Records
---
Amino acid sequence: MSKLKHDIHTIIFEADTFWGKVFDLALISAIFMSVFAVILDSVPAIKAEWSDLLHIFEWVVTFLFTIEFILRIYCLKKPSTYIFSFYGFIDFISILPTYLMYLFPSTQVLIMFRFIRVMRIFRILKLIQYVGEADLLFQALKASSRKITIFLLAILIFVSIFGSFMYFIEGGENGFTSIPQSMYWAIVTLTTVGYGDVAPVSVAGKLFASMVMVLGYAVLAVPTGIVTVEFSKAFSQDHPTVNCESCGLEGHDNDAEYCKKCGAKII
């Protein structure tokens, strides 16, 4: 690797150096300003008065991000590892909409994809210490996916039954114009959201709705419990603990020397 490539790589990929920190701070600022500009551009009054300035700023930021994207490819020995990586895809998507807007004005809505750049902050801030915990969460979700799938299927069945019952009880004159509409009510009620746009009027309907509301609290607790159990299992496997042979207390860190209850030396 040439000295130029090495220096660029150090600045872009190494946040521990002075210029690396400067680069990261500048990039974070550019990301937030870019996102903020998109938000302002969505306000009609601001867009009418500052449209030209926002348009210029958009192109400046896009140009800077494009240069950064090219430099990341240039300074790597194997550019394909970055180009086809998750963050490489995010970087590409974040600069693509502006060029598409210029070539195809009808694709203006694609500018919202630039919000994906905010995800890069997790890498820039070097939140590597949380990667392990994130992996544990993904392991827990993967391990509980089968149970959650069955749970969701059961909820779908309940929603269909509850919606059909409410359609039969209330009817179209009270807003339950169809079974799908009644199923929508069942979902809103079962999840305790309660928009109120569709509500029962009859006494029987209110009694049935009360039952569904109470059931909703139990329903919300089920997936939480499933994921929590799997997360605990994954955490235990990733963070093995030792037991005190003297008092039998569990849960000591594997590098603990003394029991936190009886003070005996842990072997």
Note: Confidence is low (pLDDT under 50) at residues 119-130.
---
Amino acid sequence: MKFGIVGNLTKETLGEAVQRLLGTGEKRLIEFVTHDEIAKIVNKETGKKVIAKKDTAPLEEIAGECDILVAFGGDGTILSAARLVGRAAVPILGVNLGKLGFLAELSIDEVESFVDDILNNQHVIEDRMVIKVTAEGDDLQFFGVNDIVIDKSNSSRVIDLETYVNNDYLMTYRADGIIVATPTGTTGYSLATGGPIAVPTTDVLTVSPICPHTLTARSVIVPDSSVVRVVVESKLQSVRVTADGQQEQMFTPPVNLFVQKADYSVKLVKRKDKSYYDVLRSKLMWGKDIRVTKVD
């Protein structure tokens, strides 16, 4: 089994975390292929060539050379890794060097024991839905593991978003924008807008307005077989389309945008001994009274 290594190059602890994984792998005779930019960081920090050139590859080639891709960083790093993997179906293991980390739930201190779990086949590989957005008369095709956001960009004015589900008119959201989220993405931007949390294995999409001008406007849950069409007619302002907060494109109305389930999924490596509900309780501090502080 060969592990690929990618990560957020801006994280100060990246080099140390990668070294710990390499040390774990060395004891277990695991092969690694490391992003060449990460190798430079590790070799510079250690003052010696810990990672040989033959064990590195450019970022765009990593997924094609490994059996499991280890991504060091936060959830944004996992989303970038998912885009890197695409349809290759290489499982992604997230190691959290960030803050919240719903996707990158493994801490660096847990890596060694979890590597053993992987080698002993004591892990779970979850399929996570991917959605895509296209535009009528344009070659736009963005993919998102979390969400597709259609918004007013930098304008101070609200925008009218005429929304359909499978050609059935839903409503016209007068709002800052609209979020179409996968179940994975319901703990992201969608949650911040007041949207519901959906368990990742559910076959749904959520449609949520961003700061709607109509107080009765609410999130709607639709089957994942749905095509969500958003029509923007007003030429007074531009429309921005964003996938996972990482890819974006501007449009001048009128424009028809279509969001639907993609024809592939992303595979995430998860622990057998930790359920999604455990993650929710831990990350959202459910059941804890945050008013109580520890007194020494």
Note: The chain has two domains: 2-121, 130-263.
---
Amino acid sequence: MSHPKELFIGGRWVTPHGGERIDVVNPATEQVIGSVPDADAADVDAAVGAARARFDAGDWSESDLAERIAAVTRIAEAIKPRTEEMVELLVAEMGSPVGGKGGSQVRMLPTLIDYQVRAAQAMSWRDERTGPFSQSEVRYAPVGVVGAVVSWNGPLFLAIQKMVPALLAGCTTVLKPAPDAPLAVQALAECFDAADLPPGVVNVLQGGLPAGEALVAHPGVDLISFTGSTAAGASIGARCAADIRRCVLELGGKSAAVLLDDGDVEKLVGAVLGTTFANNGQVCYALSRVLAPADRYQETVERLGAAVGALRVGDPLDAATEIGPLISARQRDRVLAMVADAVRQGARVVTGGGRPAGLPAGYYVEPTVLADVDNTMTIAQEEVFGPVVCVIPYRDDEEAVAIANDSPYGLGGAVIGADEERARALARRLRTGMVTINGSTTNWAAPFGGFKRSGIGREYGPEGIRTFLEPQSIHQPA
């Protein structure tokens, strides 16, 4: 049981303004395993005030890049000895299998920080440009105070994904994790404290929706970086737009994996298992639509059904478990309702489709493959955020592109084909921020983000740091 009582504000652990608390439930057991303070508007104001004062003082925002790199490197060093503790907390509060994303997304944090440092070192932070009338210095200045609001499906990884680039840029920060999975982030806050950053550079607020709304609306915040649902992102974008404040929104997806007629079905299956069923299906870039040639449709359905049906569902603390519970009863019921609705619309359940036998407690959903799906069905248009994949037939490459692009989202995608030039040519036609050829990997050195309703802005690589910078031109007559 973990019941932290304080918030990390201004370099100190402080008693929250109010006395409300948020219970944290283990989704595998449905038992309360801890609680955190529920920050209110006064706590948000204190955290933003601390970040604002430190930024305006200039000792951090105008510091040398080497100083900021040293600071984030200390964060990485503080994380390392606490990695397994943080893995246990994360698995307990969100149900991600310890042998899968529940473990890897924590153990990779120091490596992610290292990649972000390398990106900062490789960037140009100042340019000289000559025009017809003047000589100009273009410098890249930190945007200011950053509010980082992260979702529950990868709270530590998402926090580092936002906070470290912001810190490298010279910004000060306020981090607000989701109330569903706050315990591991509390341990991360202790790592921030141990890294001995200047007071106010990093502030961490536990809290629910009111705290998030107060942070987003706070006039002292210059940029909101949010990962979560498209509906919440739209609301945040509208609130920031009203004040002409910056925002970065990493939102939902309904990504398609296109199997070409010469593609390897085994590679397709590997790509789908690596995304759609990672983290119990709770990933924004899941390849949740499989597009198969009509003459290979049955082969694809059978092979995918067999592989998904063999996935081991169970206790996320068991290293052999591949699928754990969803985050909440609400999410479980939503996923099951979407599957049932798809069947009513004409889809066929190949495997799964319900709650697994032998697990009376926990918010589990069987890993599911749906065939005979038309792209106009709700299940093919809306993000499920659970272990469900749809298989859709197509006639030729033109129709495959049309189906893949017929979505309100545009986050990821994959193309599986033996002729890599043909696969790459088709990938370029997909209206998504990321496409993988013959696999499911991402690249931290390249930008991550989406088109359309999948969001605004990019994370990772130099683009992820430039998100937190404003270009300033200083002109001098030639």
Note: Residues 409 and 452 are 6 Å apart (CA to CA).
---
Amino acid sequence: MDGGGGCFPTGRHYPGIAHLIRVAAIGVAEEWAAGLSMNELPLVCIDTETTGRDPAVDRVIEVGCVFFNSGGVTHRKSWLINPDCSIPAEATQVHGIKDEDVRDAPRFEAIAAELLEALRGAVPVAYNAQFDRDFLMAELGRVDLAAVALPPAFRKGVEWLDPLTWARELQKEEKSKSLGEVSERLGIQLVRAHRATDDAEAAVLVLAAFAGDIRVPKTYAAFLQEQRRLGRIFEEERVRWRGN
């Protein structure tokens, strides 16, 4: 069919079959409508600092949460956490947190309920979200919270918004996709890189900047579905690259 529009050259679905069409809103938290504008979503950007890179054996030593609504940061929360083990020197070189900084800090189980409560009522965001989510899920798995209702960030099936996925697409011509480099290109200030609250604030501002790009879907579900698609493409390309 001419016009480049396939079966729907006008860009609209025929009313006669509209009832047959469903949008699979995979990953959307039930608290918000799939068609809600990205500008209306309450967000919480989460960042962790850890003793290493393996959530099965390494531990979280800092959690930062930055809350974003109606176009701006509303408030911030952070916790230093005693990992009950020594922090390796190579980890300290990254984030600057030493054993003495967390010696008198609470363990994760002591702040878990407060963290869960803080994360209620907001859509989770993180830069390279799988890293932070895996670590926090591992920590939560060590805590006895059987009767506690989980916020969206900790619920199975709820996808985190991830600015890194969009950086790989919208800044694909740039070599580095680190949070610091991406922030700088967007004119976003990151003063203390690799400290949880500072990284979280930069990440949510990066997400807000990307959400305003004309190429980015404007509703919650559409944004997530495109993020999933871009993520699959990246993983497929990475597998091909490793195989060469």
Note: The radius of gyration is 20 Å.
